[in-house]
Amino acid sequence: MAGRGIGRALLGSGLLAVTVLGGAGGYGIGLLTSAASEPNGRAVPLGAVTPPESTPTPAPTSTPTETLKPQRTPTPDNSAPLRADDLSYQTREFDTEGVVRSRVTVKVPRNWWMTQPDPKREARFTDPTAKRWVRIESGFSLTRPPAASMELRIEVLKTQVPADQLLTIHSQKVDPSGRTATLSYSYLPAGATTLRYVFVRWAALDASGKVAVEMSSTGLRQDADALLDVLDHATDSVTRKDSPL
Asked: What angle do CA 156, 120, 244 make, to 5 degrees?
């Protein structure tokens, strides 16, 4: 029951921001809540830079004024919160396709409907209001433990999320067993007016200790309790069985 333990620990820590991260790049449903590639480019150590032996060019006497985008101000959504006690669960089954085909079974809220992109790298279950959902991704190679996967995602967020999406990291937690890692953050999607709160969890399902399933639950600030309950049910029930494509 590692999922329940880490969920409660995150709630105990509260949703207190520790840093705000900005960068370049876009975001749809995918970047912030699905597997992303490693960031490109490498910083050059300052000590490795050798100035040329020539007369330096005088500094310009004036600097062009940079055009800044107006700061976006989120508007609260005061909808009634999603409540964990109101949720009932059922086991759903679906296939994801990546390096292999993975047959996934998982418990999700009973009345949430399923959609899948093309190609089927994940499945998403959305609540009747379309304000909350849980996403489950599989079919990828088992290459990294949960903690390393979380650190990689944080680096991607730092470099690829625009500053006007107001990304805020709230918490990072690795289960003592090392079998799960959970990242919590909020952001303002492009074209939206309300902040979204996200919990992403990476789970290892076998003795290899490598991530087999990535899951995320997304909703409103007042939904945090229930979003973790959804994620905990998914963590405690998820299975993956692979076959060739």
From this structure: 105
DSSP, res 36: -
Q: Tally Cβ neighbours within 10 Å of residue 159.
A: 16
CA distances from 240 to 14, 93, 126, 203, 214 (A): 32, 10, 21, 11, 11
Cβ neighbors of 60 (< 8 A, separation 6 or more) are none
Phi first, then psi: give them for residue 33, nearest 5 degrees.
Answer: -130, 15
3-state secondary structure of 225: helix
Whose CA is closest to 201, among 89, 82, 34? 34
Distance CA 34, CA 214 (A): 8
Summarize pLDDT for 40-95 with one digit per residue, the tens: 333 222 233 333 444 455 555 444 444 455 689 999 999 999 999 999 999 999 99
Please state the rounded mean pLDDT for residues 10-28.
Answer: 34
User: What CA–CA distances, in Å, run from 219 to 49, 58, 61, 197?
Assistant: 46, 53, 50, 5
Is residue 113's pLDDT more than 60?
Answer: yes
Structure tokens given for 217: 């639950």
pTM over 0.85: no
Sign of the CA dihedral with 20 first, then 22, 196, and 136 last: negative
